[in-house]
Amino acid sequence: MHSAATTATVDHSTRAAFTEKRYLITLAFVTSLFLLWGVAITMGDVLNRHFQNVLHVSKAQSGLVQFSIFGAYAVMGIPAGLFMKRFGYKNGVLLGLALYATGAFLFVPAANADSFAFFRGALFVLACGLATLEAVAHPFVAGLGDPRTSDQRINFAQSFNGLGAVLGPLIGGYFILRAGQAHSNDLESVKLLYQIIGSVILFIAVAFFFVKVPPVQDAHAPVVPGAEAGGYAEAPPLADQPRGKTLWHYPHFVWAVVAQFFCVAAQGGTWAFFINYGIEKMGLPAEKASYYFSLSMVLMMAGRFLGTFLMRFIAPNKLLATFTLGSILMCLIVAQSFGWPSFIALLMLNFFFSIMFPTIFSLGLKGLGERTQQGSSFLVMGVVGGAVFPPIMGLVANHDVAAAYYLPIICYVVIFLFGARFYRVR
């Protein structure tokens, strides 16, 4: 792995290129990783509902599926960053893929044991792989081109995370929740599906082993507010920055970690009980509710592509604050149980959620220079919010799943404050 020691001279009179030709193959491969963990994350929400039926757990207990997945981010965030710093981006990706595949294959003994605890353990190992991939992939893709377009590249890659999030409920709904199939009320379909997933991930790991990765740029060299469309301009070289500062001396980074915690808390809770909302409030079959969940992911993917385009003209923090206000409005409508208007608002939550995670991530890394890799690890640890919030929402959802959607508003208020004010690099 390589990063530039100083900030290169940049001509701000020209528009920065999205990436360079030498990075195209690597960018395509790293972007595919965003798709792969998108599939895994939303498959967890399908498993949430299936375990309620097959293993007879309550909504609050099934929220522990998300606890196992997102809790792994808290455990693996710093080790993944240290591994990446010691062994480089490529080896970090290979470690993440290996853990992902191992967790998938552990679903076989978990299904044989008919054990919710065993499944949570398998999900934890799998999610350690996801956390590693996420810690590596964000600074990796940010470094594959001009620093001024790092926000655009991260949002572009996250658009494919959205595609993976679309595929997850479709795959899970068809293979796991589909009514009338031979194994709709047992764990055989889960076991077979995760054997296939593990095999695919293992194949991709072997393929990436043979990819030659060119030297990666320092995408987050120190920056200061400027006149760029994205809100940033070149800053003095790292050598000119104050020395002896830790990550916690950067208020924008601290706020980004806090905002990321609440961002994924809102995401985890919203997704965990989407299918329950469709079943209980709309009278939909479980399989059809999972397909609507997939449709909401299409809207999220569309939001990310649109957000990537709009960031060429609107500062990322302003777009983040605007989308957050949209999310608050949608939560208020969802909680009213207005029938289809509320269900459409539930679908639209993912559209407004779309740019939040990648934009908070990119804004948080701005100006960290040589501390970028360590900062990425802490931002990934912020994802533990998705472990904490679903069980809390589940306690409310046990009584009224619609009322549970008041809770994410708290999260969106914090994100709005970050986008409106506390994003600034100081």
Topology:
Elements lengths: L23 H31 L4 H4 L1 H24 L1 H17 L1 H7 L2 H27 L7 H28 L10 H22 L13 E3 L6 E3 L16 H22 L1 H9 L3 H25 L5 H19 L5 H14 L2 H10 L6 H10 L3 H13 L10 H15 L4
Antiparallel strand pairs: 1-2
Radius of gyration: 21 Å
CATH topology category name: Growth Hormone, Chain: A
**Tally of discrete structural domains:** 1
Task: Detail the poorly predicted runs.
Answer: 1-13, 222-242
Tell me the name of the CATH class. Answer: Mainly Alpha
Percentage of residues in helical conformation:
55-70%
Shape: globular
In CATH, the homologous superfamily goes by the name: MFS general substrate transporter like domains
Please summarize the sheet with the most strands: 2 strands, antiparallel
Query: Termini, distance in Å?
Result: 28 Å
Number of strands: 2
Class by SSE composition: mainly alpha
* Named CATH architecture: Up-down Bundle
Number of helices: 17
Proportion of residues in β-strands: under 5%
The largest sheet has its strands arranged as 1-2
Pfam family, one: MFS_1
Subcellular location: Cell inner membrane
Main location: membrane
GO cellular component, one term: plasma membrane
